[in-house]
């Protein structure tokens, strides 16, 4: 007797479903894959998912349920940021009357042990979430061998084959190393989160999220840090004015910045790793971190062999519903190289489930996606940068800014500024973008993102009563226009 089940949003009593082992087979149990599995199962689909065996440091053959974010990305990184932030808190505490008679001792191994315990706990939680949703979990390496067929290589090397009406690729991305002599002497963010010893001398190559975050972490823990990046300022793609403040804050915290300078060679010596730059500089480091971007994790999936189109970076090409050119194969998350953020992968996974199994075709909405860079202090933003707004403008762009010393710093004596910024369209009064660099930026920006998603105008911001005394109230008290830029005009930048 055929079983009654939900397939593609419709109840089917035919024997068609018996042709497949599963309605959905997901390759990759990171944020996007787990979300898509659970929500699809919630619609009545029979779902299986596979993931590589767990390990904090990933490779082509090890990974773990939870994926990059949980195991070797956002979560452990934020734990290390918390740990590094205490150094500044100890310094600031003295002018608040706290008498620290001795310099606090730091135990790197203890933090690493606690971090690892937490990601092991989260790995277990993710497994239970899948089990509780009725998703069948397989451990091993999956690859696509046909439009409706997945081959799974188990830990012992044996192979299993499964058929599925739909296949979802959610294998994320992996760190890459620059092709320079001695590159094997450097590490990526995977290893950076699991070093046995705290390095005393660190060189970081890169100007993105990972580079500035790890530079802040190691400097906060007392290491000497040299940060090299190709552009004039770090964090390309963010608002130029905010990038400049981030650079000043990084320098203020004691990080040595080397703009427009690249590494050309690493050489092992008795004293450490000799770093040679394209400006002729030579440094000795205990650790060299390559934070030079990530690439989609498609190398071993056999996708092109079954006809799935990839772009030049190896990312899976998808349409606005996350479908590939093969109707039964889909992809979400960093493997598609759209917006590579965990919450975006979650959104894409949910939209996939609604589209395929929920009778509700749903496109991920990439407008006004907020994000944060957890350097110390952090940067957070939502909507358009000043540069993007001016490029798209049909009327004047109004820029409101507030730069100030946080109230805490007036007593602590720390010479570090916060900045907040709103970008407004003159014709509609709509707030197009918001940025903040300073303590609690991410916590504040999440609320601002809701306002932008609702289409808030500057008048609504102005009519909102602030919470006093707080930094967040600056967003509703900026009354004076810092500058007005006509269409085709030039935004403020020191680049």
Write a structural description.
There is one protein chain. With 495 residues, this protein is an alpha/beta fold. The protein is 28% helix and 25% strand. The chain has 12 helices and 23 strands. A 6-stranded antiparallel β-sheet has the order 18-19-22-21-20-23, with helices on both faces. It has a 5-stranded mixed barrel with strand order 3-4-5-6-7. A hairpin with a 2-residue loop joins strand 12 (263-269) and strand 13. It is globular and about 70 Å long. The model is unreliable at 1-17 (pLDDT under 50).
Please give the order of strands in the largest beta sheet: 18-19-22-21-20-23
Number of helices: 12
Mean pLDDT: 94
Name the overall outline. globular
Number of strands: 23
Helix/strand/pairing category: alpha/beta
| Spatial separation of the terminal alpha carbons | 70 Å
Describe the oligomeric state of these chains in a short phrase.
Answer: single chain
Rounded to an integer in angstroms, the radius of gyration calculated over CA atoms is 25 Å
Fraction in beta strands: 25-35%
The percent of residues in helical segments reads 25-40%
Question: For the report, how would you describe the main beta sheet?
Answer: 6 strands, antiparallel
Strand and helix layout:
Layout: E1 5-7, E2 10-12, E3 22-27, H1 31-42, E4 47-51, H2 67-72, H3 74-93, H4 108-132, E5 136-146, E6 149-154, E7 159-169, E8 173-175, H5 189-192, E9 201-205, H6 209-220, E10 224-229, H7 240-252, E11 256-259, E12 263-269, E13 272-277, E14 282-285, E15 287-290, E16 294-296, E17 329-331, H8 342-357, E18 371-373, E19 379-383, H9 386-392, E20 397-404, H10 407-412, E21 418-425, E22 431-437, H11 441-453, H12 458-463, E23 483-485
């Amino acid at each position: 007797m055929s079983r009654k089940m939900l397939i593609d949003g419709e109840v089917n009593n035919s024997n068609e479903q018996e042709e497949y082992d599963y309605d959905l087979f997901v390759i990759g149990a990171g944020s996007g894959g787990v979300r898509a599995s659970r929500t699809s199962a919630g619609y009545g689909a029979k779902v299986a998912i596979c993931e590589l065996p767990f390990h904090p440091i990933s490779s082509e053959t090890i990974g773990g349920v939870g994926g990059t974010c949980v195991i070797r990305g956002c979560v452990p990184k934020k734990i290390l940021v918390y740990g590094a932030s205490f150094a500044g808190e100890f310094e600031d505490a003295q002018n608040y009357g706290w008498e620290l008679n001795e310099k606090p001792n730091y135990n790197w191994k203890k933090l690493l042990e606690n971090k690892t315990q937490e990601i092991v706990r989260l790995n277990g939680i993710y497994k239970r979430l899948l089990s509780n949703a009725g998703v069948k979990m397989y451990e091993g390496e999956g690859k696509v061998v046909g439009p409706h067929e997945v081959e799974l290589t188990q830990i012992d090397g044996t192979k299993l084959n499964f058929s599925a009406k739909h296949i979802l690729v959610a294998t994320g991305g992996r760190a890459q190393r620059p092709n320079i002599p001695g590159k094997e002497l450097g590490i990526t963010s995977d290893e950076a989160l699991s070093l046995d010893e705290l390095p005393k001398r660190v060189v970081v190559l890169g100007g993105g999220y990972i580079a500035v975050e790890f530079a802040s972490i190691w400097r906060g823990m007392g290491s000497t840090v040299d940060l090299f990046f190709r552009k004039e300022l770090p964090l390309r793609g963010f608002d130029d004015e905010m990038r400049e403040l981030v650079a000043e804050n990084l320098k203020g915290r004691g990080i040595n910045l080397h703009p427009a300078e690249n590494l050309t060679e690493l050489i092992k010596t008795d004293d450490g790793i000799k770093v040679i730059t394209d400006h002729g500089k030579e440094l000795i480091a205990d650790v060299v971190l390559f934070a030079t971007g990530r690439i989609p994790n498609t190398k071993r999936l056999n996708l092109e062999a079954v006809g799935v189109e990839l772009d030049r970076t190896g990312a899976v090409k998808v349409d606005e519903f996350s479908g590939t050119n093969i109707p039964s194969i889909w992809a979400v998350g960093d493997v598609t190289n759209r917006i590579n953020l965990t919450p975006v992968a979650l959104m894409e996974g949910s939209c996939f489930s609604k589209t395929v199994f929920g009778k509700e075709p749903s496109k991920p909405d990439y407008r006004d996606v907020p994000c944060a860079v957890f350097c110390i202090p952090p940067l957070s933003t939502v909507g358009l940068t000043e540069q993007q707004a001016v490029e798209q403008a049909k009327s004047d762009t109004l820029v409101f800014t507030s730069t100030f010393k946080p109230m805490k710093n007036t007593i602590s004596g720390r010479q570090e500024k916060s900045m907040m910024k709103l970008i407004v369209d003159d014709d509609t009064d709509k707030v197009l973008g918001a940025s903040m660099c300073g303590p609690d930026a991410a916590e504040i920006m999440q609320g601002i993102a809701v306002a932008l998603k609702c289409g808030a105008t500057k008048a609504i911001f102005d009519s909102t009563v602030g919470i006093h005394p707080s930094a967040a109230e600056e967003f509703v008290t900026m009354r004076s226009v810092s500058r007005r830029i006509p269409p085709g005009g030039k935004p403020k930048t020191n680049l």
